[in-house]
Amino acid sequence: DQFGVEAFGMTGPDIDAEVILLSARLWRELGISDHVRLEINNIGSAEDRRHYGDALKTFLQSRAAELDEDSRRRLDSNPLRILDSKHPGTREILQQAPVLADYTNPQSQTHYQQLKTLLSASGISFQENRQLVRGLDYYNNSVFEWITDALGAQGTVCAGGRYDGLVAQLGGKPTPAVGFASGKERLVLLLEELKLLPAEALTGVDLFIAVLDDDLEPKAVQIAETLRNALPHLKLQLNCGGGKYSSQMKKAFNSGARLAVILEAGGEPGSAERVKLRHLDDSAEPLTVPLDELEAQVRKQLGF
């Protein structure tokens, strides 16, 4: 899964800087600022990159025998992607290749210089990476990535930039845009690696709701939402997909929950006036409680 930020309708480098500053603030809040670095580049326009791609392709064709196999395959389809190669021999050849900065238009260069000025004025350190590109033609001007060395080769935790051509390419009116996306799993891995993940985030859920009668599923959803609204910090998992008591209890134990709420048939079809509470570590006897006392009992049993 990913999350991201997008801003539409603004063309200046000020909004580029704001988006990057927002991401930097997030890293500070997570405590990982010292473990990520900002890399930026100016990739110009799609036309600039076509001219550059031709020059890069011509150069690399002259050294094709020295390239790794993946890079040779990309020579005809997308030579700019070769700039991403991690192969040591190819990386060495690329040090002698033409650079995109020499092919970008004056307006793009001005935009990029102003962005760098804004970042420096805001105290944001960055490295210019002239081999940082995008393979999609709707990107333009400034692009950036936040990189970490703590996760080996999977080092990009956030990538973004300006993509003024995207909305028009999707059929809309030409609309300037800038934003970023970050992978949640990659961030969690980084927090785990740095031992910065809060202890409570490493535990399973607090409460598991088992539903032993299909007719009670609507009631179970209602109970789950009521508890979530009343106890915002409660980590609750509602069984989905049915199943026998034994299989649902297996899910409950695997979830790490401390307490299970069990809805079973009884009374009018689709109604559940009383539910069973079971401590999954068997530290206390099961309880049968009226629905109107469930929230209070959950608070009591879990110490909320």
From the N-terminal CA to the C-terminal CA, the straight-line distance is 30 Å
Apparent shape: elongated
Sequence of strands across the biggest β-sheet: 1-6-5-4-2-3
DSSP summary: helix tally:
10
Low-confidence stretches: none
Helical content stands at 25-40%
Q: Taking Cα atoms only, what radius of gyration do you get, to the nearest Å?
A: 27 Å
Overall average pLDDT:
90
Could you describe the largest sheet, including whether it forms a barrel? 6 strands, mixed
Number of E-state strands: 11
Task: State the oligomer.
Answer: single chain
Strand content: 15-25%
Give the topology string: H per helix, E per strand.
EHEHHHHEEEHEHEHEHEEEH
Name the structural class.
Answer: alpha/beta
Quick tags:
single chain; 304 residues; alpha/beta; 6-stranded mixed β-sheet; 5-stranded mixed β-sheet; 10 helices; 11 strands; 38% helix; elongated
Molecular structure report:
With 304 residues, the protein is α/β, with parallel strands linked by helices. The protein has ten helices and eleven strands. The chain has helices spanning 13-30, 46-61, 69-77, 88-94, 106-121, 166-169, 184-193, 217-230, 245-255, 294-302; strands at residues 2-8, 37-42, 127-128, 140-147, 156-162, 177-183, 207-211, 236-238, 259-263, 274-279, 287-290. Strands 1-6-5-4-2-3 form a six-stranded mixed sheet. The protein has a five-stranded mixed sheet with strand order 8-7-9-10-11, sandwiched between helices. Strand 7, helix 8 (217-230) and strand 8 (236-238) form a beta-alpha-beta unit. Helix 1 runs parallel beside helix 5.
